[in-house]
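Hi R.,

Here's the input for the adenosine-5'-triphosphate complex you asked about:
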Amino acid sequence: MTVAQQKSSSEFALELVDVRKSFGKTEIIRGANLKVKPGERVAIIGPNGAGKSTLFNLISGRFGISSGEIRLGGARIDGLQPYEINRRGLARSFQVSNLFSRLSVFENIRCAVLWSQGHRYAFWKFLADLHDANDRAEEIVEAVGLDKRRDHLAVNLTYAEQRALEIGITIAGGSSVILLDEPTAGMSKSETKRFIQLIRQVTEGRTLLTVEHDMGVVFGLADRIAVLVYGEVIAFDTPEAVRANPRVQEAYLGSVLADQQAAQAGH
Ligand SMILES: Nc1ncnc2c1ncn2[C@@H]1O[C@H](COP(=O)(O)OP(=O)(O)OP(=O)(O)O)[C@@H](O)[C@H]1O
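And here is the predicted structure with adenosine-5'-triphosphate in place:
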């Protein structure tokens, strides 16, 4: 049974309780609170330097927190190593540069499936016997729309296809909580639209957190939006409520939406 299939022992898939993080004397995350329900899609937005990437690094265990608590399905995960957090059901998107460029799409995803099952890099001789991993990898290749590219090397994929492969690798272990860092960055408008649809499909039934700058993606994908400003979550609500929130308008969204409208008017 994968972690995603286990019944959560908590009302919340992910909880941040007064999380703080300092680098040296500078406090970057200043008491962040967030309660994400199972199956919710949440976008974290905020100005440059607000601490969005840092928050992802804290949740996924790359950095330790200075104080507070982080809970996954009710159980504390702060203080654990990234691989331990991953085993408990939280997966963070790999960067494109972490793909095995000389392996095919299928092989990349099969590696991720095997890794999630506890195999490391000495598994090659057993590959032919690992039917379950093969079947699961086939399903994921299809789910991320790369079936026609199944046997192509990762290095030969287009950028958008590499990002799709990255999503496939992220979901391969069956994690219940998925963290995606700017999943559509660098894509064209039409690629972005297709990609939002793909993310919606492959994360169906899972909890999704994205860090995102593109407001089109945010409003197209998120059930709720967390607005991070100076290391604090100043609003966590539906897209409509966040858009209408005067504090958010003042701190962030007013200027972002004005910039986007100006950019569109200029085209
Ligand atoms: N490892 C680190 N050591 C010291 N300072 C850091 C470290 N990582 C991040 N910071 C600082 O923390 C602050 C928040 O950075 P972070 O990258 O989390 O913001 P962000 O909201 O993701 O920004 P952006 O939208 O520009 O990506 C910045 O001032 C950054 O310089």
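One thing worth noting: Residues 1-7 have pLDDT under 50 and may be disordered.

Cheers,
M.
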